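A favour between colleagues. Tell me how you read the following sequence-structure pair.

===
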Amino acid sequence: MAQNQEQESSLNIKDLVYACLRRWKWFVLSVAICLFIAIVYIVRYQPVFSRTAEVQIKEDSQRRSLSNSIEGMTDFSLFQSKSSVYDEIKAFGARSTMQEVVRRLHLDMDYSTPLRFREKVLYANNLPLTVQLPDLTDMESAYFQIAFKGDDNIELSSFQHNGEKVSGKVSGVLKENDTISLDSPIGNIVIQTTKTPNPGIKQIIVRKYSLFVAVNRYRAELSTAISDKMSRVITLSVKDRSIPRAEDILNTLIGVYNENWVKDKNQIARSTSMFINDRLEVIEDELSSVDSDVSSYKSQQMIPDVATAGTMYMQQSAQIRNQQQELGNELYMAKYIRNYLTNDEDKTKVLPASLGGKGTGLENQIKEYNEKLLYRNNLASSTSSENPLVKEMDQQLNGMRTAIVSSVDNQITNLNTQMGSLQRAGAQTSARISANPNQAKYLLSVERKQAVKQAIYLFLLQKREENELNQAFTAYNTRVIDTPSGIFAPVAPKKNMILLVALMLGILIPLAIIYLIETFYNKVRGKDDLKSITAPFLGEIPYAFYKPSWGTRMWHKIIGKKEEEHDPIVVKPGNRNVINEAFRVLRTNLEFMATGENKVIAITSYNPGSGKSFTAVNLGVALAIKDKKILIVDGDLRHASMSSFFGKPHTGISNYLSKKTDDLRSLIIKSDKYKNLDYIPVGPIPPNPSELVADARFSEAINTLKNEYDYILIDCPPVDIVADTQIIDKSADMTIFMVRAGLLDKDMLPELEDNYKSGKYRNLAIILNGTEMATGGRYGYRYGYKYGYKYGYGYHSYGYYGSNKDADNSTEA
């Protein structure tokens, strides 16, 4: 049973479709409201435009080819580094880069003029004036309005400072090509007219954003991308409410990036230049000292030229000296670089270029170290030295310095070994030379020192010139492929998308509401919900007519229009409409079941308002049309629903049961339209209905009358509310339970099944009432369901009242 209930409670698509079709006005209203909101949003939203530029990151091989074209500058590659496209993308979107763009273009100042539905941005060619706020810092924000009063008069009002309103107004005279300074509640305001004439603007709204907010605002509107991983072309896009401003942002952004790139690349060259200049000064002093010593010694000792005296030994000595010079240069530079590396004060400075060291990897190590140090310094300047990435790079740099020091130590050891060998060979040659005159030995030593110093001096001069050329030939890292451009149609708001979303929401919102209503609705919907009931099913009755909706009734009440009254007797002879066909089917099924002595039929239900009286009267008319003699008894002594169909006569069954009259047949009223139809009304509403129907006179009256009629239909009150029905059922041969679609809870169906199986009510059968007509099915219609309206009957108020809701078989349209 539980499984059957679960299956029955599930909502099928067909039921959902019919539920939506009944509430089509909900969809119309929802779509209209959503579309109206979407149109208002589109009208009030300021259009946003997009501009795109493409730049190419140049290959470092271009600079390498440039350096190779300059004769004699074979070590120019010392200052080259490989650029990563992804690193350059981050550089374009860096806060420091955008901050410089905001400062140059004064993007922290925003100007607009109010239109009917939105504001229009003023910038460049359509901006008649500019404003400066010298008293406000970069971290402060402000707002005010400038109104043009005519005759060059302006008025400043609606001041705000850091989001808080400030009272006060300021007036002034601003002429063409003029600059004025005004004292305002937010400080000094300097207003300067531009070359753009005022195009009829009556009011300008001025907003000053804090530098932090302005930078974040334009960074959020900037997007960078590359087409694929192998490409070196970066696409820059900016969205803004002003097309000229978007183009200026892109152009300035590219310019600031190029300047920063050149500045970073020249930092190594500047550091090396300072080192070379310092060393040249030292070498110049040393050379001057050596030259003075040689000159003084020769003058004092009067030493002649001894070259011809030791030609053979001098040639050998010359070879050794040349080798010593080369090794001395390398050893000198290696020691200097080691001292530079071990100095803690120079840890954040780039290393000078290795000016020697043939066949070693030291130059590559220094170049890699300088690139990482520059990246670390840039990262630290844009964030802080406590940044985890900065600390991680510090650890990497320390390791690289240690590796470089180790390489330098190895090179020094190797050079010292070679130098020792040359010195021993030179000592042998010098000994032979010194064997002639001792003075030649001294002069040879001094000249050797002089040659070493001179070689170092010339080497440094060459490197200084190379360094200067490097700075002079440093080109921009980018090449602009496409200048900022784009379509003139706004990219936002996307009108078609917004309207489509509004349309979808307008459909989905009522659909979701209806789905929830249908899902959690626990009333009987139609015949399919009664499949678990094994009691005989006599038929179903659709709505006879529709009531106006609540809104329609209220409107009719306002305009004073009376509601149309309907005849509760809908069965007519010869009528072939849906309701008449339904009662004919019901009549046929009833005749099939009510055979033999099953003449007395009690009609009841669980709920008030189930249509018992309506069904009893129209079923009686349907049987009477077929020449059956029918008696309808109003057994609802509390409500008298059926009696109200015939004007509620003043005498009836209550008079007989209360022994005010003994003439039962005098209470029978003949129908003036149907000769075979009689009925007994309630008469006066008694104070003790249960006691009256429990009296033996009621059963005696029924037993007496059933011999005179083919069928006696008794309209009973609902069960489980009062005891009258169970008492009346003792006199009945058959019981019809009315199940009103949209009124009876499905939880009551198991109880109805128990009543049938237990035989609590005699020959129990079921009629489904209140189904909704739709096209298709038998007789040109199908039965659906309708619910969601209220009935006048209530469990708490079943007593003496004048409502006639139980007789109603209509619904709200």
